[in-house]
Amino acid sequence: MLKKLFTFLLIFTLVGTITSCGSGEPEDPDAPFVILKGFVDSGKSVYTIDESTEGSLNVKYNKGENADAFFTKEIKISDKLEKYKKLVVSMKGTGSAKIVLVGTSEEKFIGLKAPAGSTTFQWNLDNDVDFLKTVKKVSIYCAPGKTKSVGDITFSKLQFETSTAFGKRYESGDTDIKEGTNDYDGASETFSFNANWKNYNNGTDYEIVENNDDSVTFNYPTKKEDWSCLATFVDGKLSVFDYVTFKIKGQIGHTLIVKVNDDNTLERKIAFTSTDEKIISVSLKDKSAGAKDAIDKIILIPDQGTKNTGSFTINKAYFSKVNEDPSVNVYNGNDTTFNINKNIQDGGDKNYTVSFNNNITSVNYAKTTSTYAYMEVAVDGKLSNFDFLTFKVKGTAEQKIMLKIEVKITDEQKEVAEEIYVLNGNDQTFTLDIYHITVASR
Predict the structure, then answer these.
(1) Which of 212, 221, 313, 419 is least surrounded, with the fewest CB atoms within 10 Å of its CB?
(2) Does residue 123 surpass a pLDDT of 70?
(3) Cα–Cα distance between 40 and 281 in angstroms, integer?
(4) Are 256 and 269 in contact (CB under 8 A)?
């Protein structure tokens, strides 16, 4: 009797063991190794790490004087990173991140600039099998090597995968992080970027002199390229600003284009008619917060389209919240009319001599350089209240004048209202209908 009971229990135990083994899910050899969670600050109290949202790692940082602060996550040898061919990173925000794989005897990295909208980057690790066997942690340095830098980056994907890297593919050592970038501290009322200017696109035309008073002088004694230019790079949460302001001195007869982010809708052309300091602002008010935060460079194009030689000095250059440009006519948003008959200036071809006295603009011209040389006036404000531009003028009989309003939507798209009028030598009043320009564009 005892022998039978023992046999029965033995069979039951074996059956139970077999059933238990058969009920588990097989491991997927191609499953990604997700590392969004488990990061800690390196001890400098620079990073605020939020892992509370599923599938998301948000990191806010304020570097202070801690140039080399990082946050890090331990990796176990049992994680077997050597079987993976890439690290996939999806991120958005403001700032930059140097992602470092730390091995026992060496480190490898890539550097990424956080885009305004979520973007996926893929770090190719296909040739790093032996190195991956030694990786013991992943460390991330935001604004690497910089002090007084702030940022806010959200990672929605940070994982090793077995498939081959494609798309925005990076090799070890690749970086989008520019050296000598001007970083906004996230708190100041203005943000100066009048430093770290460079010849852009591998150019060599410009000598750059940083003066003791923080002004910068640009000399071009021999200009090889018609459209050679200069640039400085910026980083930070710039959506708090509405204007980019320049205080500049130049040589009479020369011109300069200032451009934000290589965006033709964010540029101003300066014609130097005296050696006095000029204050020029580029308005950002029509740009979204995301577009402002994505600004990463400021470009200067001296004497565009020519090989002229010359010199100019930028006394100050900064982002600001108010318009300081006296040459821009600013609508207050309330009045039923808006006078723009001041601050009219040559468009840059030096064909027009403009003067303003007693609320009257007088113009003498000799069109010698361009058939379509023009004058322009800058305006700022919400002009959707208006449907017409009224123009009172007196000029030489039989001369023609084109009145044109142009609103740049993108580099390729713009809305235009224009009309050609014939002068008769007497006082005349012309009205340009701008009603068909969309309210949003006005």
Answers:
(1) 212
(2) yes
(3) 43
(4) yes
Phi, psi of 290 (to 5 degrees): -65, -40
| The predicted structure's pLDDT at residue 411 | 61
Q: How many residues does the chain have?
A: 442
Instruction: Determine the Cα–Cα distance for residues 275 and 119; give it in Å rounded to an integer.
Output: 46
Exposure of 106 in the CB half-sphere (CA atoms within 13 A): 9
Q: In sequence order, which residues have a C-beta less than 8 Å from that of residue 269 and are 6 or more positions away?
A: 255, 256, 257, 304, 347, 348, 376
Looking from the CA of 200 toward its CB, the CA atoms found within 13 Å total 17
Q: Which of 324, 364, 363, 329 is nearest to 343 (CA)?
A: 329
Report the DSSP beta bridge partners of residue 375. 346
Higher pLDDT, 410 or 105: 105
Is-contact 364 415, C-beta < 8 A?
no
267-296 pLDDT, tens digit each? 998 889 889 999 999 999 889 998 999 899
Pair of tokens at residue 38: 């488990």
Residue 129 CB neighbours (<10 A): 13
How many other CB atoms are found less than 10 A from the CB of residue 161? 19
Distance CA 146, CA 334 (A): 45
Render pLDDT for 82-91 as a digit per residue (tens, 0 to 9): 999 999 999 9
Rounded CA-CA distance 424/66 in Å is 70
> How far is 350 from 369, CA to CA, in rounded Å?
8
Burial (CB < 10 A; 0-12, 13-18, 19+), residue 397, is exposed
d(CA 337, CA 331): 9
Cα separation of 345 and 353, whole Å? Answer: 8
Alpha helices per DSSP H over 23-66:
none
Question: Residue 186, class by beta-carbon neighbours within 10 Å (0-12 exposed, 13-18 middle, 19+ buried)?
Answer: buried
Of 423, 288, 175, 308, whose CA–CA distance to 263 is shortest? Answer: 288
pLDDT for 2: 38
Percent of the chain that is helix, strand, coil (3-state, to 5): 10, 40, 50
What pTM was computed for the model? 0.70
In sequence order, the 6+-apart residues with CB closer than 8 A to the CB of 215 are 194, 313, 314, 315, 316
Q: Which residue has the tokens 């202070």?
A: 64
* 88-110 per-residue burial string, b: 16 or more CB within 10 A, e: under 16: bbbbbbbbbbbbbbbbeeeebbb
